[in-house]
């Protein structure tokens, strides 16, 4: 089984390789090809992987290349985890929006729209190359904004591309722990778009255990989402929001905290990773990762008075586990239930069949099949429909190169409060990002 990782010089690639090293079952990945446009980063991560493999006799063989077609040839699975413009690009996405007084974040609000505008053309190009060189491969998309990018790629690859994220599993794991349930025994009724979903029920042995948690103020105060949103608001919603909904429900506080932080998250990571790539080793990778995990959403937690992250949340084990579980289920035809980004079909009646949504899916050798879910309440319908509308304008602008359409993408986003702001955002982003220059 051959796995190709696009963005193979990326900082989180050793997490994926660590998960592969622990897999000794039949049908596992035996060959990994890392592809990146940056040969130095490839060499750095290649070195870390070699250190990781040193004590593992049946470690998957690793090769590296900067040639995309060569990387894709013979791949059974392709992980796409690229960052167009690097962390400097992300820092600019965040800084420009915050300077206008609106949210600048990697995937949410104006920052997410700018990132989407830059990333969709690259993702489409990758999808076309996969269709040509490795038409039987399954593509697992981690590239953010993951829902939007998966939808772009699905226009070329259909259901052969599946988007993943670790935030729904993280939420499920935390809630199960508080309820004293084994996450493996629970059915999580989690629905929405990527970074915009709600956990509405946790069924164990035929009973919904979530009402028990909603009634318990102390238990709600004992985990990340409970502390970010507060017991009262969670009870008002009757569901537990994905942590990214903090940017919507507490937008002013989040914007204020982000503006006051001095450096954006992207700028912090840019500087942190420059140090790591300057002298890469497995030890410094561990240390860098630990710092990164400890500071995740620090400004939001400060704004909410939520305190530090819980000890258990500092151990990463999210997205690479989802990716591995997905590959196993497909490669070995072993039924699994995973929350994934797939085309809607008829799952959410508010959206059309081709809209990519994030919902529980049954996975087997034929891919990911979304399961039927209860309808969204009106407040969630509103947000999901508005954000999907903005995403559709991003896809249209990437295709047409039209300025009006790009302005519409910013202006229709619920976290951008004025059309004039949208116009100024586009102009400022085009100055920062040469690849957006054709839009103005
Ligand atoms: C979560 C999200 C990812 C995101 C990651 C890292 O895990 O699901 O989509 O890339 O956080 O965030 P950071 O701010 O540390 O880059
Ligand atoms: Mn994510």
UniProtKB/TrEMBL annotation:
Ranges for domain Glycosyl hydrolase family 4 C-terminal: 190-416
Alphabetical list of Gene3D superfamilies matching this protein: Lactate dehydrogenase/glycoside hydrolase, family 4, C-terminal, NAD(P)-binding Rossmann-like Domain
PROSITE patterns (UniProt xref): GLYCOSYL_HYDROL_F4 (PS01324)
Sorted UniProt keywords: Glycosidase, Hydrolase, Manganese, Metal-binding, NAD
Cofactor: NAD(+)
Gene Ontology molecular functions: 6-phospho-beta-glucosidase activity
InterPro entries: GlycHydrolase_4_CS (IPR019802), Glyco_hydro_4 (IPR001088), Glyco_hydro_4_C (IPR022616), Lactate_DH/Glyco_Ohase_4_C (IPR015955), NAD(P)-bd_dom_sf (IPR036291)
EC numbers for this chain: 3.2.1.86
EC top class named in words: hydrolase
Record-linked Pfam families: Glyco_hydro_4, Glyco_hydro_4C
Cofactor stoichiometry and binding remark: Binds 1 NAD(+) per subunit.
Hydrolase in keyword set: yes
Annotated CDD domains: GH4_P_beta_glucosidase
Family: Belongs to the glycosyl hydrolase 4 family.
Protein name listed in UniProt: 6-phospho-beta-glucosidase
